[in-house]
Design a protein that fits this description.
This protein is an alpha+beta fold. The protein has two domains: 3-139, Jelly Rolls; 146-228, Arc Repressor Mutant, subunit A, CATH 1.10.10.10. It contains nine helices and 13 strands. It has helices at residues 26-33, 89-92, 108-117, 119-145, 148-160, 167-171, 181-188, 192-204, 221-228; strands spanning 3-4, 9-10, 36-41, 46-47, 51-56, 59-64, 70-76, 81-83, 94-97, 101-106, 174-176, 208-209, 215-218. A hairpin with a 5-residue loop joins strand 6 (59-64) and strand 7. It is globular, with a radius of gyration of 19 Å.
Length: 244
């Protein structure tokens, strides 16, 4: 996959309508956009940048293991700050778009200069980095300690908090699925057929419903939270309880 630098950049960069960006003072918005350009991406585009903000769509850090397996080490949703400068490029993998996306590319030197003299901007960056670090810790726990079914339940609650799931959907316990099942599999460390099998199992137990292809209804929140929190451990034969 070749590194991507857009031939056409959107004429007017703008910030996503999510916190903390939508609460910045006009001077902070000006400082940020003055050092920015808006890149238009399609699925599979590899982004040759280490700093920016996801305005729309979904980005991921993609790694390839020595045996050829693909891993999505981190996901970035609308409103997320992407800052990959503190990790060696060889170890961190490639930043890619998982769907049509808009990426606000930030000039590192200019942004750092502005953040050094703009406390509001610096605070917004720190808050975003702290939030993403907490999500990465939770995800590491999922990969290290949970069965495939537990990981699937956990990622549904993660997606429920994403901006793609509207407040109206969230109030009805509907989760909008922002990425493909193949990408979900590479994110939670299983095969795509395992994702499909886990969804069928949860649906068979009437814990979820599927009102639309890109939506999942959490029909039994307490039971789903129990599974997401490790309530479906493996039996002695190595298979998860509740699965044949």
């Amino acid at each position: 996959m070749d590194s991507f630098q857009p031939a056409v950049i959107a004429p007017q960069p703008y910030l996503p309508d999510y916190g903390p960006w939508n609460s910045l003072a006009d001077t902070s918005v000006h400082d940020l956009l003055e050092a920015a350009s808006l890149w238009l991406l399609e699925r599979g585009d590899q982004i040759d940048a280490s700093l920016g903000i996801v305005v729309s769509g979904t980005l991921a850090v993609e790694r390839e293991l020595s045996d050829g397996r693909r891993v999505l080490a981190s996901l970035f949703h609308e409103g997320d700050l992407v800052d990959l400068r503190r990790t060696e490029r060889m170890r961190q993998g490639a930043l890619i778009a998982l769907k049509s996306s808009e990426f606000l590319h930030l000039d590192e030197t200019r942004v750092d200069d502005r953040a050094a003299t703009n406390p509001e901007l610096a605070k917004a960056f720190i808050a975003q980095l702290a939030d993403h670090f907490a999500r990465m810790q939770d995800h590491a726990t999922d990969l290290a300690s949970k069965t495939p079914l537990e990981r699937m339940a956990s990622v549904l609650f993660e997606f429920k908090r994403w901006p793609e799931t509207t407040p109206a959907e969230r109030s009805r316990d509907i989760v909008r699925i922002p990425i493909s099942r193949i990408d979900i599999a590479d994110y939670i460390g299983v095969k795509p057929e395992t994702v499909s099998r886990a969804i069928r199992e949860l649906e068979r137990e009437k814990l979820i419903g599927i009102p639309h292809q890109d939506q999942i209804l959490l029909a039994d929140i307490p039971s789903m939270r129990g599974i997401a929190n490790g309530g479906r451990p493996r039996r002695s034969n190595g298979r998860p309880n509740g699965q044949g």
